Amino acid sequence: MKSKASSPAKVILFGEHFVVYGVKAILCAINKRITVTAETIKENKIYIKSNIGNLELEPNKDISEINSPLKPFYYLANKLLENQKTGIKIDVESEIPLGVGLGSSSACCVAGAAAISRLFNKTSKEEILELAIEAEKTIFENTSGADCTVCTYGGIMEYDKKNGFTKIESEPNFHLVIANSNIEHSTKMVVEGVKQFKENDENRFSILCDKESKLIEDVLDLLKKNNTVELGNKIRENQEYLETIGISNEKLRKMIQIGQNKSFGAKITGAGGGGCIIALTDESNLEQTLNQFKEDNYDCFSVKIDFKGLDTF
Ligand code: PMV
User: Does residue 271's CB lie within 6 angstroms of at least one atom of ligand 1?
Assistant: First the structure.
């Protein structure tokens, strides 16, 4: 028995960091995917093969003893093998760069949960999402589940801590240029730095949260109107707030400047401190924006919003 599933990566369009303190964030799925193929095998073992390495283990190991980024796959295979005499072979193919805030681990968990669970049952998207979040918790204990949700359902989504996720029904047709600083970041450390910033000046931080909330409301309206130029201005404004809270650095600032040159606006996406930036474009300035980054030897590529989400074969 063989089963295959693929899940898109994601970017945070607006609201990272402020979302930790209750402000809304806007996320979208992007058309770069992770594909997982799972196969039952006679031998009672779990084999995982990927472009970041392989893992080969007996079932029923204590998950806390496993020190590998492939741990979520082991967790899923082990859980779904309960009461089965077979084993599982898993093959992971990824178009998503790792550890730079594009949701590669969430996409792995979603595609992994779908491919592995469907070896045994016809699981629904809701059940797959639940399994994926459980698997993601083996690496990020405090995950909000926002990334897994957007990777499962695709499209654009607003998220806040109190109300959870709401799908945004607009289907804007902009292109994003993503440029990678190739600096791996620790989300945890950058989030800690922002906490320090807040504790040093609660009043200033609270004003920034209010500004960000107002910006997000404007963005929700602009998304409905498909107004890419104005959305670009909001991206620039959001970047100023991210700069203020101290998550940028010299390399990222240089990249933002390159992005701002030709696109409608550029900002950090995700935790910052490294990772990626996004630049908002349409057909009129996509190639020029990409070329600017290429001329300066940055890893870059363009994406559109993925409206499909999880796909099973
Ligand atoms: O870089 P990422 O995708 O891990 O994004 C982190 C987003 C933060 O707002 C900085 C943290 C969080 O938990 O929301």
Answer: yes
The residue whose CA is least distant from atom 11 of ligand 1 is: 17
CA distances from 216 to 26, 68, 99, 117, 226 (A): 8, 37, 26, 37, 15
Cα→Cα distances 235→28, 173, 216, 263, Å: 14, 16, 10, 11
| Cβ–Cβ < 8 Å for 172, 223 | yes
**Rounded distance from Cα 263 to ligand 1 centre (Å):** 24
**Beta carbons of 125 and 145 less than 8 angstroms apart:** no
Euclidean distance between CA atoms 87 and 43, whole angstroms: 5
For residue 173, how far is the Cα from the chain centroid?
A: 20
List, in order, residues 6 or more apart from 26 with CB less than 8 Å away.
Answer: 12, 13, 14, 15, 156, 157, 158, 159, 168, 216, 219, 220, 223
Ligand 1 neighbour 101 (Cβ under 6 A):
yes
Q: Which residues are designated catalytic?
A: 147
pLDDT, tens only, 235-258: 999 999 999 999 999 999 999 999
pTM: 0.93
2-169: CATH architecture:
2-Layer Sandwich (3.30)
Residue keyed to tokens 């994406």: 303
> Ligand 1 center to residue 235 CA distance, Å?
17
User: What CATH number does domain 175-304 carry, 3.30.200.20, 1.10.3720.10, 3.30.70.890, 3.40.50.150?
Assistant: 3.30.70.890
Query: Phi and psi dihedrals of 39, rounded to 5?
Result: -140, 135
Per-residue pLDDT tens digits for 157-207:
999 989 999 999 999 999 999 999 999 888 889 999 999 999 999 999 999
